[in-house]
Write a structure and sequence with these properties.
single chain, alpha+beta, 3 domains, seven-stranded antiparallel sheet, 15 strands, 40% helix, binds adenosine monophosphate, binds magnesium ion
Length: 493
């Protein structure tokens, strides 16, 4: 299906496109074209996303598609554009930002927006080159698919394509483009942009568009006296709370929770210096540029609330009443702890809530933190214990054996009347065997930089179904090597 009509110089992906966000008009975006990159090559592809998009099975077989997804050839039926947004970065108002290197191809008839990240400069690039380096593109690609595999809401990635074009960061690196896919890439920052510029008509148009498309129930709500915008804010707060509960339960640190990196759909978006925790350290800072630890792991739930407050501020002209806006945010404070407790209970193999669960959860987290115990391995081994009754592999992880034994006693008491086989099953589909640890990504990246992209494909296959055993892939499930702690990931990508 992927044809290059020689006379038109256009690639046809075999997809149908609809206006989508573009229909909002020029106040929201700028029409443009991606800037070509020379001699593109495939780095990684997700067939799962290709299927979701409705691409034909041979979608990747033509050079035209490869060129088109690297921004070097127009795609039939699309009119690419970049959108404008603003935002708070590291707690400070940053003014206008926008898609500085992500170019939207459009929205498919199936309702998925497709973006090329790293496809060249836009009017919102500010000083940047509009490019993304291979290293960070592989990280975004793998992590999007890993998060989806974990059941965590996220933008997806169809593929990474590379080019040997030179990109200047701290060192010279090679370029890449990630084809990102999501129902919507609208961020809190889109709303902040029009609110800050006192453009109430555009603010309303944007809110109406997002509500119509993604939160239609808000139009007929009876909450807040039928105030659709307050109901919208509440719904976004709840989705964000649920997302944060999932991040905290799996040990995911985002690293740059600026308001322009917060999805209005409650998706994980903009993978930069993210990290899955190795040893459990609640104060872990994964972003080398975050010197004050604003986005430390244990700060994330509060930062999300702070960001929602910025969104509330932006929506205030539409909501019309400050008290109502504050009330709409309130649900975050109950949804987050409830969702978090529910997720942690499942990790403990507990299908039902009971009194005393909270101290059990807090107790284990305290123990894990005290010993900086490997977070993923602990939970997987605990799942193994539930299945076979052998506590030693779990106990071995702790130096404080006494503390562990005491916690284990209350854990076993709580499970006194549990069907252990059932609980083990629940735990094994809640506690992943595989997460995208920094060093795993790094190994795949280094091989790719030497033109061996097989590591990206192998890692992807494991991360897409991270709860399965994958015999033979145990190297991806082990402790991180010593050098893992020396990997420095910053905003520069
Ligand atoms: P981030 O923190 O990566 O989400 O990026 C913050 C802002 O900087 C966004 O508006 C990006 O589009 C923009 N940006 C980041 N890197 C580049 C780049 N290399 N060229 C142009 N804009 C960029
Ligand atoms: Mg961003």
């Amino acid at each position: 299906m992927s044809l290059l009509a020689e006379d038109t110089g256009v690639a046809d992906l075999g997809l149908r496109w609809k206006p989508g966000f573009h229909a909002l008009g020029p106040a929201f975006l700028t029409d443009l074209r991606p800037t070509p990159l020379p001699d593109p090559y495939w780095v990684g592809r997700s067939e799962a996303v290709a299927r979701d998009l409705g691409l034909p099975p041979d979608w990747h077989s033509s050079h035209a598609t490869l060129a088109a997804l690297t921004g070097s050839l127009p795609i039939a039926g699309t009119s690419p554009f970049a959108t404008v947004y603003s935002g708070h970065q590291f707690g400070v108002w940053a003014g206008q930002l926008g898609d500085g290197r992500a170019i939207m191809l459009g929205e498919t008839e199936g309702g998925l927006e497709v973006q090329l990240k790293g496809a060249g400069r836009t009017p919102y690039s500010r000083g940047g080159d509009g490019r993304a380096v291979l290293r960070s593109s592989i990280r975004e690609f793998l992590c999007s698919e890993a998060m989806h595999g974990l059941g965590i809401p996220t933008t997806r990635a169809l593929c990474v394509t590379g080019s040997d074009a030179r990109i200047y960061r701290e060192e010279v690196e090679s370029a890449a483009v990630v084809t990102r896919v999501a129902p919507s890439f609208v961020r809190f920052g889109h709303f902040e942009h029009f609110a800050a510029n006192q453009r109430e008509d555009e603010l309303r148009a944007l809110a109406d568009y997002v509500i119509d498309r993604y939160y239609p129930a808000c139009h007929t709500t009876e909450r807040f006296g039928g105030n659709a915008y307050a109901a919208f804010l509440e719904a976004v707060s709840e989705r964000t709370a649920a997302l944060l509960a999932q991040w905290q339960a799996v040990g995911f640190c985002h690293g740059v929770m600026n308001t322009d990196n917060m999805s209005i759909l409650g998706l994980t978006i903009d993978y930069g210096p993210f990290q899955f925790l190795d040893g459990f350290d609640p104060r872990h800072i994964c972003n080398h540029s975050d010197t004050n630890g604003r986005y430390a792991f244990n700060q994330q739930p509060n930062v999300a609330y702070w960001n929602l407050f910025c969104l509330a501020q932006a929506l205030l002209p539409l909501i019309g009443d400050q008290e109502v806006a504050v009330a709409a945010l309130e649900s975050y404070k109950t949804v987050f702890p409830n969702e978090f407790e529910g997720r942690m209970r499942a990790k403990l193999g507990l299908a039902e809530a009971a009194e005393g669960d909270r101290p059990l959860i807090e107790g284990v987290l305290k123990l894990l933190a005290a010993g900086k115990v490997d977070y993923t391995i602990f939970w997987r081994r605990l799942s193994g214990f539930m299945a076979d009754g052998n506590v030693e592999p779990v106990r071995d992880l702790f130096l404080d054996r006494e503390g562990f034994d005491a916690w284990m006693l209350s854990f076993s008491e709580r499970h006194a009347s549990t069907d252990r086989a059932l609980a083990a099953k629940l735990m094994r589909r809640t506690n992943p065997k595989f997460v995208l640890r920094n060093h795993l990504g790094q190994q795949a990246i280094e091989a790719s930089q030497q033109k061996d992209h097989s590591g990206v494909a192998t890692l992807l296959a494991v991360l897409q179904t991270p709860f399965e055993e994958h015999p033979g892939a145990d190297a991806y499930a082990g402790f991180p090597p010593d050098w893992a702690s020396t990997i420095e990931i910053s905003c520069s990508s």
